[in-house]
Specification:
Oligomer: single chain
Keywords: Calcium, Disulfide bond, EGF-like domain, Signal
Number of domains: 3
Strand content: 35-45%
Distance between the termini: 36 Å
Organism: Branchiostoma lanceolatum (Common lancelet)
InterPro entries: Cadherin-like_dom, Cadherin-like_sf, EGF, Ig-like_dom, Ig-like_dom_sf, Ig-like_fold, MEGF/SIB
GO molecular function: calcium ion binding
Number of helices: 3
Structural class: mainly beta
CATH topology of the largest domain: Immunoglobulin-like
CATH class of the largest domain: Mainly Beta
Helix content: under 10%
Protein name: TIE1 protein
Strand order of the largest sheet: 9-8-16-15-12
Shape: flat
Radius of gyration: 35 Å
């Protein structure tokens, strides 16, 4: 599928490439196109005009080769991030401009998936010729199976790793004197192999399928090299027998060793038979840092501190970066975890970190939708800097507040506005211990439990007092009506009296989550 998309994208160049006089080009390119993939020729014949990209090259995805005049993919594309580009190219020779409408074609199998279930941290040994795992066999034979060192063991074997489902498939070719003499060509021995996982919880399944006549009867798979089945010229046995063993393992969990109890029953046409039982351990050892794949020879493309998956090279980007290679700026805002069961009078510290933003961005904190000001008695500390390891800017803001009443609890939100006017927001909850009624908060003293009857009595007392006050107020209003002979307003207030509930939020969208871009959930 991936190669087909590249071919279809290339066909679009037939009508656009090197066509003098046209000012607009429509180009299609697959998102899985590798850096260096040519998508348009800007020079034709002996034309020596000089072109350069003057506008629209968002995130520096494209470039022009000065020698050949080819427009090519400079960095990895991603359909979900940007599906269209409008790139302007200027001819410095005569000042002409070309408008390139570049459409990115979605590839369902791209980009690779980072599945944490089967992630293996990089191993210390810097050897890129060893598989990212070993399968150790403990039986009467006493040898290690499916181990590749890139030399004798790895000459006729390969591993295919599926990261989406955390699956591994290994092909191993066996070719020796025993197989040639005991298993004549064209015969199929009796072979039964079964394994039971003995770990709790269960860690995947494992099956082994032999192909006894693999020289001419084997599955069609790109991981199988036909050269494995070529007989050496120095062979004393003429046509040696080749046996291909396919081992499949599903639902791999790589946090620790996976152990199976296995049983093998084998009988040849000449009467040789064996029954063996033993333990088989799936031992993840990872790939050297910067490598991935079944033989740990593929080079990772993750940048800016991205974590490379050893199965398929998928990148897990740190906060502040996104894209196939973690090379596209993606500002993030992260707030410290929620604070629950806070005791009255306790001091709470809440931190908010913003990465890959302009350090001069404006910060604000709000409590229950109202911006916190210095007059609220909240201490604020802010630091700004640059993270060398992740190649990103950062701004950290921390507030320290005392949670003394119910009004001090609730939602605390931090927000910042970039120099371009974009608003980012994240919030955390601060909850007092137990259940409190706003009308009866003084009925509770710190550190003393109350029964349901006490709480109910307190609430009913409050309601009764409120009813008495309301009745007394109404009586006073009626008395004034009779005395003055005119109505007295029972609602509202003079315009000269300020509304003490009016918010003084500088960022009115602090509570409008629908309008916030790139909200990050911890």
């Amino acid at each position: 599928m991936r190669h087909l998309l590249k071919v279809l994208a290339g066909v679009t160049l037939l009508f656009a490439s090197c066509h003098a006089g046209r000012k607009t080009y429509s180009i299609a390119v697959s998102e899985s196109a590798d850096p260096g993939h040519v998508i348009l020729c800007l020079r034709g014949g002996i034309d020596k005009k000089t072109y350069r990209i003057s506008d629209g090259n968002k995130d520096d995805r494209f470039a022009i080769d000065r020698d050949s005049g080819n427009l090519y993919v400079k960095r990895y594309l991603n359909f979900d991030i940007d599906s269209h580009y409008e790139v302007m190219v200027t001819n410095d020779h005569n000042g002409d401009e070309l408008r390139l409408l570049i459409s990115v074609i979605d590839d369902p199998s791209y980009p690779p998936v980072f599945n944490p279930t089967c992630h293996i941290p990089p191993r210390a040994r810097n050897d890129s010729s060893v598989w990212p795992f070993m399968v150790r066999v403990s039986s009467i034979f006493g040898y290690k199976l499916l181990y590749s060192d890139g030399k004798r063991h790895g000459q006729r074997s390969s591993a295919y790793l599926n990261n989406d489902q955390c699956e591994a498939k290994v092909f191993v070719v066996m070719r020796d004197k025993f197989l040639t003499t005991q298993i004549p060509p064209g015969t199929t021995p009796v072979f039964q192999f079964s394994c039971t996982n003995i770990r709790d919880p269960t860690r995947g399944t494992l099956t082994a399928t032999p192909y006894w006549n693999a020289s001419y009867d084997r599955p069609q798979d790109d991981a199988i090299d036909p050269e494995w089945f070529v007989n050496p010229a120095s062979s004393r046995y003429g046509e040696r027998r080749h046996v291909l063993l396919e081992v499949d393992m599903t639902d791999i969990i790589t946090e620790d060793l996976t152990v199976f109890n296995c049983r093998l029953e084998f009988e040849t046409a000449t009467g040789f038979s064996v029954i063996s039982e033993g333990k088989l351990a799936f031992d993840p050892i990872g790939c050297p840092a910067g490598y991935y794949g079944g033989t740990c020879r593929n080079v990772c493309v993750c940048q800016n501190g991205g974590n490379c998956h050893p199965f398929n090279g998928a990148c897990k980007c740190p906060d502040g970066w996104t894209g196939r290679a973690c090379d596209i700026v993606d500002p993030k805002i992260v707030i410290s975890a929620n604070h629950g069961d806070v005791m009255p009078g306790q001091t709470v510290q809440i931190s908010c970190a913003v990465v890959n933003v302009d350090p001069s961005s404006t910060f604000a904190w709000a409590r229950n939708g109202r911006q916190l000001l210095p007059s609220d008695g909240v201490k604020t500390m802010t630091s700004r800097g640059f993270d060398v390891g992740m190649n990103r800017t950062f701004v950290n803001s921390t507030i320290i507040t005392n949670i003394s009443t119910l009004a001090d609890s609730g939602e605390y939100a931090c927000a910042y506005v970039t120099s371009s006017g974009k608003l980012y927001r994240e919030s955390a909850q601060v909850a007092l211990e137990g259940t409190f009624s706003p009308d009866c908060i003084n009925c509770f003293s710190q550190g003393r439990p109350y029964r349901a009857e006490t709480i109910a009595l307190c609430v009913m007392s409050t309601l009764a007092i409120s009813l008495i006050v309301a009745m007394a107020t109404q009586c006073e209003i009626n008395r004034r009506k009779r005395k003055d002979g005119k109505a007295v307003p029972t609602a509202g207030r003079p315009r000269s009296v300020p509304d003490i509930k009016e918010r003084t939020v500088q960022f009115p969208n602090l509570i409008a989550r629908g309008a916030v871009e790139n909200e990050y959930v911890v």
